[in-house]
Design goal:
This protein has 241 residues and is α/β, with parallel strands linked by helices. It has two domains: 7-163, SPOUT methyltransferase, trefoil knot domain (Alpha/beta knot, 3-Layer(aba) Sandwich); 178-237, Helicase, Ruva Protein, domain 3, CATH 1.10.8. The chain is built from ten helices and seven strands. The protein has a seven-stranded parallel beta sheet with strand order 3-2-1-6-4-7-5. Helix 1 links the parallel strand 1 (7-12) and strand 2 (34-38). Helix 1 (17-30) packs parallel to helix 2, helix 1 (17-30) runs parallel beside helix 7 and helix 8 (178-194) packs parallel to helix 10.
C-alpha cells in the first residue's frame, strides 16, 4: 500500500517533544508522512528524535507553523479530535465512520487535528473542523496519550483502506478548502453585521452558522456562488445599483 500522502497529522502546541517523536513513529508505522506542528513548545529536540525510533525523515520534513489556519489552508476535510463534550454540540463521528467520509475520493488533502495534551482544541479551532472524532475509551479513565491517540486513528484509516480496492481520485467538482471556508465564514460574519441580522436569542450565532455550513460541506463553486450573492446584496445596500 502506498504512503497515504493525502493524510496530514496536525499537532497543536505539543508540550513534550517525546510525544512528537512517538507520533512520527506511529505515522511511519501506518504509512503517513505529513506532520505539521503548530507552535510547538520544544522542537526540534533530541528527545523527539530518540522517541521517533528511526522515523527521522518524518521529523526532518515536519512543517512548523504559527497557526492552525496555515496548517490546514489547502485541506478539503479537517477532522478534529476531542475527549470532552462542548457547550455547542459539534458533529461527531467514530474513527471508522470518519474514514467512510473520504473513501469516495472527493478529498485531495485531509487533516487530522490533535489539540494540546492538557486542554485539547479551543472553540475557535473547533470552528475550523468539519466534524470531530472521539475514541470510545473507558469513561472512568478517558485520558489517552497523544501518540496513542494518533496511532489508533491512523490504524483505523489504514485498516479500512487496505480492505477497499477503490481508487482514491479527485472529482472535477472540488470541495472547498479550509482556507476558502475561512474566508467564506469571515464574509458571512461581515454580511450578517451589514444587514443587522440577529436571531434575537443567542450570542453564539456566528458559531452556529459555522457549524451549519461545515456540516453541509460546500463545494468551491458553491462558496463562490453564495459569496457572490452576499456581494450583490452589499452593493445594493451601498447604492451601487
Amino acid at each position: 500500500m502506498k504512503t497515504l500522502d493525502y493524510i496530514r497529522v496536525v499537532l497543536i502546541q505539543p508540550t513534550h517533544p517525546g510525544n512528537i517523536g512517538a507520533t512520527a513513529r506511529a505515522m511511519a508505522n501506518m504509512g503517513v508522512s505529513q506532520l505539521v506542528l503548530v507552535d510547538p513548545v520544544d522542537f526540534p529536540s533530541p528527545v523527539a528524535t530518540a522517541r521517533a525510533a528511526g522515523a527521522d525523515e518524518i521529523l526532518d520534513n515536519a512543517l512548523v507553523v504559527d497557526t492552525l489556519d496555515i496548517a490546514v489552508a489547502d485541506c478539503t476535510l479537517v477532522i478534529g479530535t476531542t475527549a470532552r463534550s462542548r457547550s455547542i454540540k459539534w458533529p461527531e463521528k467514530s474513527p471508522s465512520k470518519a474514514v467512510e467520509t473520504f473513501k469516495t475520493g472527493q478529498h485531495s488533502k485531509i487533516a487530522y487535528v490533535f489539540g494540546r495534551e492538557s486542554s485539547g482544541l479551543t472553540n475557535e479551532e473547533l470552528e475550523r473542523c468539519h466534524f470531530l472524532i472521539r475514541i470510545p475509551v473507558e469513561e472512568s479513565f478517558s485520558s489517552l496519550n497523544l501518540a496513542s491517540a494518533v496511532t489508533v486513528i491512523l490504524y483505523e484509516i489504514r485498516k479500512q483502506l487496505l480492505q477497499s480496492t477503490e481508487e482514491m481520485t479527485v472529482k472535477s467538482d472540488k470541495l472547498a478548502t479550509a482556507e476558502e471556508m475561512r474566508h467564506f465564514l469571515e464574509h458571512l460574519e461581515q454580511f450578517v453585521k451589514k444587514i443587522e441580522f440577529s436571531d434575537g436569542r443567542s450570542s453564539k450565532l456566528q458559531r452556529k452558522m459555522a457549524r451549519m455550513f461545515n456540516r453541509i460541506h460546500m463545494y468551491a463553486q458553491e462558496v463562490r456562488m453564495v459569496r457572490g450573492l452576499f456581494k450583490s446584496v452589499e452593493d445594493k445596500l451601498d447604492g451601487k445599483y
